[in-house]
Amino acid sequence: MALFGLGKTKNAFLEKISRVISGKSKVDEGVLDDLEEALISSDVGVDTSIKLVEAVERAVKENKFLTQSELHEIIESTLTDQLKGKSFGPDSISDISPHVILVVGVNGVGKTTTIGKLANYYKKIGKKVFLGASDTFRAAAVDQLKVWSDRVGVKIIEKGMNADPAAVAYSAVEQGKTENADVVIVDTAGRLHNKVNLMNELSKIKRVMGKVIPDAPNEVLLILDASTGQNALNQAVEFSKVTDVSGLILTKMDGTAKGGVALAISDQLSIPVRFIGTGEAVDDLIPFDPESFIKALLK
Ligand code: GDP
Ligand code: MG
User: Fold this and answer.
1) Which of 125, 155, 193, 281 is the most buried (most CB within 10 A)?
2) Do 53 and 169 fall within a single domain?
3) Looking at ligand 1, which residue's alpha carbon is closest to its atom 5?
4) Does the residue 134 lie in any domain?
5) CA of 141 to the centre of ligand 2 (A)
6) Best CA proximity match to 130, nearest among 172, 159, 178
7) Is there a single domain that holds both residue 43 and residue 118?
8) Ligand 1 pocket mutation, candidates 107, 112, 113, criterion most atoms within 8 A of CB
């Protein structure tokens, strides 16, 4: 994973960890407390931070006197070990019929932008991508997706504002199937403030997709704004109650010091983080890999 784009999270994290271990050659209570505080304040989350600190404590139990680089290494390997066995990274694409991705999340988290970047990602690896403009709720939403479809050079299926989102989704999947698309990505409006409505709308969209392709949607991708820190984690929990979320993308990792939430989410939820968004440009989407992420934060 490229190291760019994580600026603020990286600086904040590294600075805090460095402050904890600088000048220390012994891991005592004080160091462990400071480490815990550094992790929690980087939005790694209380539960995950406590687990990590306990793991560091166990790791240094035998030999409390360590060099700074040994300490650094222990922190890195403990963080990494903690996330071993969790799944992450892009979903595999079946080559039988279009892989249908339904994109959900509250307003402003970066759904439409991320769809543009995802379309670019899949197109670059040789996939034929179609977009479905099922956020028909806000005036600019369809136009915004059109701009992305032009920019990336992929087909968009839209019926304008106020059209039935499920009807648009149906057409997108149907055309994707008839025209042999590999990936169909469908945008939605994010209205979590009305849970029943949202649940009904998403169920309806999923139901009509399933009429065209029984397996569709193959993926329900929840977009979360990393700059909201722990709130992003809460949104993931809330959305999972409304629909079966199968993957996550954390956006705005570039502008925040709260990117540590990626570790909390990977640790606490059984939903894979697939990509992280690191800017507003078309290439600012990185497949997530916790090991490289931790390395990027600590180096
Ligand atoms: P939606 O309402 O969920 O569809 O969100 P949009 O895609 O319209 O994005 C909302 C705002 O967030 C826009 O100004 C985007 O350019 C911005 N945005 C989305 N992803 C990122 C990202 O990874 N980094 C930064 N810095 N901005 C982003
Ligand atoms: Mg949108």
Assistant:
1) 155
2) no
3) 110
4) yes
5) 5
6) 172
7) no
8) 113
